[in-house]
Amino acid sequence: MGEIVGALFTTHIPRLMILDEERRRRYMGEKMSSFYEAFDRVRREKLARLDFDTFVIIDTHWFTTLEYVINAHERLEGIYTSEEIPWMIHEYEYSYPGDPELAFAIERDARESLSGIRVLASQHRGLPIHYATLNVMHYLNPEKDKRVLPISVLQTASVSNDLRFGEHIGSAIRRIDRRVVFVASGGLSHRFHPYDVILDYATVDPAQVFSPTHREWDERIMTWFREGRHADIINCAEEFRRLCTPEGRFAHYLNMAGALGGIAWKARGVQYGNYENAIGTGQAMFWFDIDASR
Predict the structure, then answer these.
(1) β 54-64/147-154 pair status
(2) Dihedral angle sign, alpha carbons of residues 153, 137, 38, 42
(3) Is 140 exposed, middle or buried (CB count within 10 Å of its CB: 0-12, 13-18, 19+)?
């Protein structure tokens, strides 16, 4: 029987892929992002101690419309250049084993449950990989030996849809012999500063998050992460969506929570790195030990 052995809510901001320190300084200023070290610490302190097969990644840069889509390719490989910020991420070669067995198991679990949640495990040629997957894997899967299963955000889904889909992910993992680290790849509040001033807000200073309301909500969510108050987060998810347009409509978190018990999930999050601004958006990283959530 499979299980989720660890869960990570994490930023994937493009500046992670500015690998030269001088270029980082020119973009961010003298105060560097804490996330470079934070990723290394998560890998050393958490992942290195776990026996697992697959990273399941909710990719908040992959939007679908009619159903939840899962990349079911045997291998994920290619050369990636970001269409959004090509000077930060370009000609990046990647190659990871995929996990089609788990992809089809999730699709089958949803279909057989008659829950009404539509899921497609896709092996169509040319299915793209996005940097919300690649940036995180660059740091957490450097040996490229763990399977990688990217999953879309369904832009027409409700909070309850996202939670129910998460339940199917968790159910499918338990039905097959797969040990999984669940990665919710995306930020918190997500509104950019306007074009004419946006480069003035490239620093990590959280005071530069888009507005006091956005920062207050981020702080509230992070407090609840630390206290394991997932029921409170879920109950406020609609309001958070409406007021702060969280990245990926907050589906990355909701899918993860659904897979781990929904309102009954009580794991306390351990923060890695700082809460940071990224041109107006709120960014953070929290690890959840699964044995603490039972």
Answers:
(1) parallel
(2) positive
(3) buried
Residue 197: exposure state from Cβ atoms within 10 A (0-12, 13-18, ≥19): exposed
What's the half-sphere exposure (Cβ side, CA atoms, 13 Å) at 277? 24
**Cα-only R_g, the chain:** 18
The answer to whether the CB of 277 falls within 8 A of the CB of 209 is: yes
Cα–Cα dist 173/127, whole Å: 23
Q: 154: which DSSP letter?
A: E
Q: What is the pLDDT along the chain (294 residues), one digit of tens a residue?
A: 899 999 999 999 999 998 888 888 887 777 889 999 999 999 999 999 999 999 999 999 999 999 999 999 999 999 999 999 999 999 999 999 999 999 999 999 999 999 999 999 999 999 999 999 999 999 999 999 999 999 999 999 999 999 999 999 999 999 998 999 999 999 999 999 999 999 999 899 999 999 999 999 999 999 999 999 999 999 999 999 999 999 999 999 999 999 999 999 999 999 999 999 999 999 999 999 997 444
Q: Mutual orientation of helices 237-244 and 212-227 as an angle, nearest 10°?
A: 150
Beta strands in 186-280 (DSSP E): 269-271, 276-278
What secondary structure does DSSP assign to 244-258, as a single string? Answer: H--GGGGHHHHHHHH
Q: How many of the other CB atoms lie within 10 Å of CB of 90?
A: 12
Tokens of 9: 């809510």
Domains and their CATH numbers in the chain: 3-289 (3.40.830.10)
Angstrom CA distances, 276 to 187, 256, 283, stand at 10, 22, 5
Neighbours of 244 (CB within 10 A): 25
Separation CA 134–CA 146 (nearest Å): 13
Q: Which residue has the tokens 């499979």?
A: 2
Q: What secondary structure letter does DSSP report for 260?
A: T
Please state, in angstroms and rounded to a whole number, the distance separating the CA atoms of residues 111 and 120. Answer: 10
